[in-house]
Write a structure and sequence with these properties.
Blueprint: E1 14-23, H1 27-38, E2 43-46, E3 63-64, H2 78-87, E4 115-116, H3 119-132, E5 136-138, E6 142-149, E7 152-160, E8 163-174, H4 180-184, E9 189-191, E10 201-205, E11 208-212, H5 237-262, E12 267-271, E13 282-284, E14 302-307, E15 315-319, E16 331-333, H6 344-347, H7 350-368, H8 380-389
Parallel strand pairs: 1-2, 1-8, 2-5, 8-16
Antiparallel strand pairs: 3-4, 6-7, 7-8, 9-13, 10-11, 10-12, 14-15
Helix pairs in contact: 1-7, 2-7
Length: 402
């Protein structure tokens, strides 16, 4: 039986006020913050870790997946492309020659527009870019709850070294990766408990640095755990802990395998992921869910496009209604928190997170200008115009596959 203790009622001080508050500093959160700030909004970002980038950096998932459809056509520009270029600004890798200006278009059919990056360099570059935009960062700060009145979030409650405090805001972007804000705000959500052990890590073998993209077989639909093994829920605290413990046990076994295969003991771990490598945990169940059956369906409220990182051909247009809350007027989701059904494995990828983050941030900045921010009253045409001005591809017509 669960025991309860009573916490004395206390007033929570307001530590800061923002037009747009972004919860989560992963790629979606960074894109949302930059987009909102560039539209003149006062922006704050809550991040429980001490670096930006989420799984891309702290999880060592160092592949910036394709900005193209695999058929030679680029479908992501805007911040999706800006952040890709930022990830390799240190010269770690170059954009494929065929995807540079004047590149071989025939070669684009054979090589997708993607790069690998150095996570440490990307952390430094992301932070500098966000601070330069005038965004205020709140590191080591955990989202706890929302203060909601008349269907709107008036403030977000957080905790950090200073104790519990409230951050007042006009609009909120849930880029937590686990739809934490959506859940606390009373939005309908969907959760999966089918995540498997995974954790990319760098190691040294006789002085040579190598990457091991460690994971066990997974189901991209999230409906089962292949082989009948253990599944983990990213919104369950015990599962989160156990996922890290079990993944590190698997890491130790993999390192032992490398030592036996190489015939040397000089195999050492160098950089381990510092956050759990969940794929799909909890998401918004919005007015519209993006599914694989929506491939090439053009929505009137399209706020961006994406290809499918897993295979060439598919193209998806992302509707604003898949981002906006249904029970909370001024809440919008981004990244893997958005309302995706069978397309969840597509929309959780780095470039698509940047697309939805940019759209969510722009929408939040525009909504915050309203006397009573409500995303349902937002002029979609105005939003699309702002995004188009930021080089976002919205409704680029892509011919069907033959």
């Amino acid at each position: 039986m669960r025991r309860w203790v009573m916490e004395p009622e206390r007033r929570v001080p307001v530590a800061a006020e923002y037009d747009v508050l972004v919860v989560g500093g992963g790629i979606a959160g960074v894109a949302a913050a930059l987009s909102a700030a560039r539209l003149g909004a006062r922006v704050g970002v809550i991040e429980k870790e001490y670096s930006l980038g989420g799984l891309a950096t702290l999880g060592n998932v160092v592949v910036y997946l394709p900005l193209c459809d695999g058929m030679g056509r680029q479908v992501i520009r805007g911040l999706g492309e800006e952040l890709l270029k930022l990830s390799i600004r240190d010269g770690y890798e170059q954009i494929p020659a065929c995807w540079r200006r004047g590149g071989d278009k025939a070669e684009r059919l054979r090589r997708r527009y993607r790069v690998n990056f150095n996570p440490a360099s990307f952390i430094l570059a992301l932070e500098a870019r966000v601070l330069r935009a005038g965004v205020r960062l709140h590191y080591d700060t955990r989202f706890c709850d929302v203060v909601k009145r008349n269907g709107r979030i008036e403030a977000v409650v957080v905790e950090n070294k200073g104790g519990r405090a409230a951050l007042a805001c006009r609009a909120v972007v849930d880029a937590s990766g686990d739809a934490d804000v959506c859940a606390r705000a009373g939005e309908p959500t969907v959760s999966l408990a089918t995540n498997v052990r995974a954790g990319w890590f760098f190691y040294s073998e006789e002085g040579e640095l190598k990457l091991e993209p460690l994971y066990t077989p997974f189901d991209p639909t999230g409906q089962r755990v292949p082989g009948g093994g253990r599944g983990y829920a990213g919104d369950d605290p015990d599962d989160v802990t156990q996922h890290m413990i079990d993944t590190r046990a698997l890491t130790r076994r993999r390192l032992d395998e490398f030592r036996r295969a190489s015939g040397t003991d000089k195999v050492y771990p160098v950089v381990l992921p510092t956050i759990p490598s969940f794929r799909m945990t909890r998401r918004l169940a919005g007015a519209v869910e993006l599914n694989e059956a929506d491939e090439r369906r053009v929505f009137e409220d399209s706020i961006g496009m994406t290809g499918d990182w897993r295979k060439p051909g598919p193209v998806y247009y992302i509707p604003l209604r898949a981002l906006t809350g249904v029970a909370t007027a001024n809440l919008i989701a981004a990244g893997r928190c958005m309302s995706s059904g069978t397309a969840w494995d597509v929309t959780r990828a780095i470039p698509t997170c940047a697309v939805t983050g940019q759209a969510a941030g722009a929408a939040a900045a525009l909504a915050a200008r309203m006397r009573t921010p409500r995303f349902s009253e937002l002029d979609v045409g105005l939003l699309q115009g702002e995004l188009a001005g930021q080089k976002v591809l919205l409704k680029k017509r892509v011919p069907p596959l033959e």
